[in-house]
Records
---
Amino acid sequence: DRSAPCWVDLALPLPEEIKQVGEALSIEIPSRAEMEEIEVSSRLYQEDGAFFMTANLVTSPDTDNVESSAITFILTETCLVTVRYLEPRPFETFAARLQKPGGNCTNSLDVLIGLLEAIIDRMADILEIHSAEIERISRTIFADAKRGTKPINLNDVIKEIGREGNHISIIRESLTSLGRMSIFLNQAVSANPKAVEIRDVLKVVGRDVASLADHASFITNKVNFLLDATLGMISIQQNSIIKIFSVAAVVFLPPTLIASIYGMNFHFIPELSWGGGYPLALGMMVVSAVLPYLFFKRKGW
């Protein structure tokens, strides 16, 4: 039937809608709980002549609060069914592209491949945005301190690094699930008369996913490096503070000793009856404080 749709997009479907579409296509559409299972056998399988593929896709804004959600793709000979409970932007953009003149779909497999390409393009854009954010954080951490500039709050930097690390982790998870899905789809279309052409396209899709996954791994390593560097800088600041207290304690230790000696309640201390005893004690205190300071300064401590 040429009028039959080749893509049925079930966005936030009700149980009645799932049942209706499943009966019309003679397939059993998985529930939301089944879609969120992590076993590969529950996400990639063939049943009643249809191929069921579930992948975690990024479904939130570019920068803040990046999240992913399980989306199921069901490929039959005549129709592609997608089941999703959030609104990923690639679905909207690809649907708008199909509605333009000359964008009508020819078969379900072409729709699936085109949708995957739109998803990968979108994830590449998101990954570029977060890569630029990591570069900004890196410049902030290692920026040269200038007079009048506001000191960097390293605690806030750690929070930013942790947030970006979580975002990259979610993106990597999505890329991994997409990579598995492309491999399964490549094996599934082997019986298609246009298998060679389709496999060539899927190879390109697989290479794109692999390259994005490699870039995400690189960014993850950089996030770990920035986190270690920030913790190291915090440790250096703490050591500097402890160093100041240590030097101050050593500088004031000899004067304290001298003051303690002359503060003892003995009747026979020769300097008590000497007119120059008080100035002598003060001078000894000053000299005993200055000498350790000069020694530390000369050593560069």
Note: The two ends are 86 Å apart (CA to CA).
---
Amino acid sequence: MMPTDWAALWRELATSDIQASAEGEAQMIERWRRVARRLDSGEKQDPDPLLDFILGRLGPETTVLDIGAAIGRWTLPIAERGRQVTAVEPLPGMRQVLVERVSSRGLTNLTVVDVPWMEAEVLPHDVAIAAHATYTTSDLIGFVRKMDACARRTCYLALRVPAHDGTIGELSERICGQWHDSPNFVVGYNLLLAAGFHPNVLMEPKAVRHWTDPTLDHAVARAKRQLHLLDAGHDATIREILSRRLTFMDGAYRWPDGMRSALIWWEKT
């Protein structure tokens, strides 16, 4: 068996994500705006052990570079803990939400950079973070090497972890000929190892938050979004697999798939 070319696989999967993000950017930004409203509503949020791990390792004099800051889900708590934060966020819609949230909290130690990471010119910081910000870069190693060069002390990279027996994996293999439907921790971690990095891993410890959909039609639509399918050519296949794999309980269709993340991190030598 030929060894997996992890760089080529990441590039192939990231290219699909780039195409999908261009088409759904407005919808994505609106989804994250709703998340921001929920975060700022004052209601109790689910714990985030990966963010808590990072916050526990920051001091009041720490400077942090947050790459792909989006709406600031990690950026703002980090700015409240450290001395200075530089947030790189190229998408105007995301950046607008981030700036609004920074202003509402009265934070003055946060600078926003409005260009893509690979074009950004930033000074070194103590810590560099990229939380779910690498999925649309075709050159993960180039991204990480620049990140590593801009960190004096520690780098943190958060990636989503696919379910090993997930329905999306089965659908992707059947329709696309490849179990991985998108860039993820499995591909990224193996690519880092192949490139000579030997990072630590902190897996999100809590139970996976499983997806649920009110109807099978909603579940089919979710699967098509995950696989970047725009037409109805594979709907029958998707419906057949979902009918077999999803469980109807408490008035909704429950997926074996769900949301879980891993934190890849390393100290600078």
Note: The longest strand covers residues 151-160.
---
Amino acid sequence: MHTSPLPEQQSAGLILQQFSQGDSSSALSELRQLVNDIHAAIPEKQRIGKGITWTLQRAAGLLVEECTEPRQMRELAGQIEAALPADDRLVGIPMILMAEYGVGDPLPALTYFRGAANNPGWMGREFAQLAFRRMILPQRPLVFLFLEEMAQSTEPNQRRFCGETLRPVVENQWLQKVPQASLAVLRHLFREPHPYPRTSVGNNLSDLSRRNPELIFAIVEELVSTGDANSYWIAYRACRNLVKHSPKRVMDALRVDEYHYKDRNVSRDEIKD
């Protein structure tokens, strides 16, 4: 084993070589070293914005560059995942590799992410929905059919995957311009009984309200009018951002005299006419 850090691309090449030779132990050790070296090279002032997610994306990108054909990405993802202990943070790397592979060959990747959404570890589930976003726009028609099906799954983790992977952030900012695309999926979850996916739906609607306040106000009123307790909970959660600018309108829509969320506490008595 080398005693000093290898240049990033050289390290990525060595990892592929070691996996191809069946030396998964050395390859995994080299991969950990690569991730540590990438993170250590981030200037301290940038480490808030460039954390573990960015670091794993960088490492995965280096591995992609070493692959001479797409099939290698899929094989490498399987090799890394098989070598990892349960709920290891490096699980994000094979997931990113599979999403990159899925840009060109979506069907195997969709099958993979159906399982990844049900990963028993929280970290695995988080990286699954983050990685999957890479596939959404390039494979939009097929991905949305997949997500609509997943939104009707009997598995709460799979339903939650839909709400999280469609949040209009980072590479998903384009969804703010076409919110009906994600709403077609989220509507399947508007009466969601399980708290895990239900929270995701509320958060997603709250994200959409930043650019589409009128649309989300209309949805909040729709959800409240159903009389369903789960729908109401989602409506309340969806108002986290709206209440900053339109507190009275939020309380009117929710039919309450107070709104509470973390440090945001408003009441009608505090609002000046």
Note: The radius of gyration is 21 Å.
---
Amino acid sequence: MKDLLNRYGLLLTTIFAVLTGFWILVLVVLPNIYLFEHSFKPYLPVAELGGPKDVYSLDNYMTFFRSPIHISVFFWTVIYSAFVTFICFLIAYPLAYYLSKVSARALLPTIFLLLFIPLWVSEVLRSFAWFIILALKGPLNASLLGLGIIEDPVRWITGFRGVIIGLVYTYVMFMLFPLYNAIQSLDTNQIEAAEDLGASRWRIHWRVIIPHSKPGIASGCVMVFMLAAGSILVPT
């Protein structure tokens, strides 16, 4: 907070704090409180809302714990969301390191523009695009067959493979930007010092860069996991 005051002054710092607090309250806290409160009520038609059946109870939670199907869906959702988060990290970390420490600054605007362009397209259109790409006779199978990597077409959309690919593509940017901000704040002299002391590449990442990037990793993992776990549109 002191750094913000010193950099932007009292007025701008207050505006930032108020806008951030408003965003967290209106878009995060209140909606979750609303959902939590409605979880104790039955799902009723609009005409019956406020009627004698619209009462608080634990029926929804008891139904969840009594049904093995609901429990199975819940745990598989957690497992696949964690897997999507891990894949997003594997993809985003090298890219974030390249953008922050390797790439020439003159190329950064162009690279970021290329990364941002897909986000300007509707999520529905992007999902349909992947549906075409992953089709049995789509361009992905055609490319893999042409290169001789596979002998028979793969049904990518069958099971959870298509869902995982779609979720990774949709949410990988939410992992990239927190990682980029965290790695960019690392002093390059620390990396050079580790190299001068004989540390290998993987050891520099493991002992210097990743520990420094923990806040960005945590932020990206939380965002990707929560978005993947709560996503309905992409799997549908």
Note: Residues 2-38 form the longest helix (37 residues).
